Amino acid sequence: MTIEPNIPPNLAAAPEPWLTGRRKLLISVAVVALAMFYFAFQSFQGAAQYFYSVQELQAQGEALADETLRIRGKLLQESFERAPGTGTGEFILVDDNGDHLQVSHAGAVPSLFFNPHSEIILQGTYDPSGVFTTKGDPLIKCPTKFQELDEPGEQPADYEADYDV
Hints:
- By secondary structure, this protein is α+β, with helices and mostly antiparallel strands.
- About 20% of the residues lie in helices and about 25% in strands.
């Protein structure tokens, strides 16, 4: 005679584990996708920094003090002065409205910096006393390279060559 154990029918089959292979895969894919989204958002947020004009910077003044920000404008011609032996230059940046900003820059400047048509973009901090101190090299945008000419081979009226042809 064989004796069969009395196992209730609901306990006969082992319960299925919560983390099956398919669920593990779906959770892993979701975690990776969220991490990629987070890193992409952080990198684009840093790259999409706003450029202030001189007028906007001066209007907000103390609210932007000691924040790293970007500013754009043009060099006020003949305003660039470099202190002998220090490598620090000071100049005045002007925006389209004619507002002026005193700038202190330590380091070299490219030759296009002195072009009257070049737009200068600087990154640095604004002191409530009214001086913008740069961090890093200036970025120069020169629109004269992209002006349309009336006749092929013609130079813009305000073009100044650095060499004789």
